[in-house]
Design a protein that fits this description.
This protein is an alpha+beta fold. It contains 10 helices and 10 strands. The strands form 2 sheets. A 6-stranded antiparallel β-sheet has the order 1-2-9-4-7-10, covered by helices on one side. Helix 2 (127-142) packs antiparallel against helix 3 (147-173) and helix 5 (198-204) packs across helix 6. The longest helix has 27 residues, at 147-173. The protein starts with a strand and ends with a helix.
Length: 289
């Protein structure tokens, strides 16, 4: 495998560029394939973010003076201005994919994917991640009218894959199975406005009710009962924001025939009675007009 490098601007210097006017922008990306020793040391880092994903071999990354060996499936995220220091000590084969990116939306994107901290993460070897990098390369090669937007969207997809891969490994470590609740969660989202029992949810996943409740809380952070209530109230709040339906109609649509009970429940969970919540939305809309 050869080294590959793709840049949106051939005039970019080694300190990168910060695009404060763009939500998400890729400055450059590529593959580093080496079978000899080398050292990369940027004491002042760069002005953009840097993600390095190991595909083959090993590399020693030094952070805050402490070395750590990274292997296939490890990734490193460097923030702007952070020292970048990594070393390959021998002549064995090593390959990593890399990308420099910037934009005012980056902190939000990284936070949303649970990758806000500059550091080292582990997904395990992932061909889908390296294939996604290559899709970005193809956009830089083709350079059609929307290649930068498409490349930014593919970077988002990479970050999501990374987060989900990390979560899958965590589920495995805890003895859980990623996606184990898929059938029942789909059922809840399509049938939330009618009575749903734990028993029928458990049967969808071929589990006992007690095992299902334990697994659900482990993965979702709520009991099935509380999760359904939260979903119903979120749907109700959305209807208040987007329609002029009455509270009685909204209560019925999300599964509550008793409007009074719905109002008490909404207030206890959301801190406002539904009519006050709806009024606050109207006041906010008036201010924005």
């Amino acid at each position: 495998m050869n080294n590959e490098s793709y840049s949106r601007n051939n005039e970019l210097t080694d300190d990168g560029a910060a695009a404060d006017g763009q939500y998400l922008q890729i400055n450059c990306t590529g593959i580093c394939a080496m079978n000899r020793s080398f050292t990369t040391y940027r004491p002042q880092g760069r002005r953009d973010y840097y993600l390095l994903f190991m595909d083959r071999g090993t590399l020693e990354v030094i952070r805050e003076g402490q070395p750590q060996v990274i292997q296939p499936g490890h990734l490193v995220i460097f923030h702007p201005g952070e020292t970048q220091w990594y070393v390959k000590h021998d002549d064995s084969e090593m390959v990593y994919y890399w990308i420099h990116f910037t934009g005012y939306g980056v902190p939000e994107v990284l936070s949303g994917c649970g990758l806000a901290a500059a550091g080292i993460y582990y997904t395990g070897p992932r061909q889908d991640i390296t294939e996604a990098f290559r899709e970005i390369f193809q956009n830089f090669i083709g350079r059609d009218s929307c290649y930068e937007t498409a490349a930014a969207a593919q970077l988002l997809a990479i970050l999501v894959r990374i987060r989900r891969s990390i979560d899958e490994l965590e589920c495995t470590r805890r003895g859980l199975i990623a996606g184990r609740l898929k059938a029942s969660l789909n059922y809840i989202h399509s049938q939330y406005n009618r009575p749903i029992s734990v028993r029928e949810l458990a049967e969808l996943e071929h589990l006992s009710p007690s095992r299902y409740c334990w697994l659900f809380r482990q993965q979702m952070g709520l009991s099935p009962h509380d999760f359904i209530i939260d979903l119903r109230l979120r749907m109700a709040a959305d209807l208040m924001a987007k329609t002029d339906l009455s509270l009685k109609q909204i209560a019925h649509m999300v599964g509550y025939d008793d409007q009074l009970y719905f109002s008490r429940l909404f207030r206890s969970k959301r801190g406002l009675a539904p009519k006050h919540y709806a009024q606050s939305l109207l006041n906010l809309m008036d201010k924005e007009q």
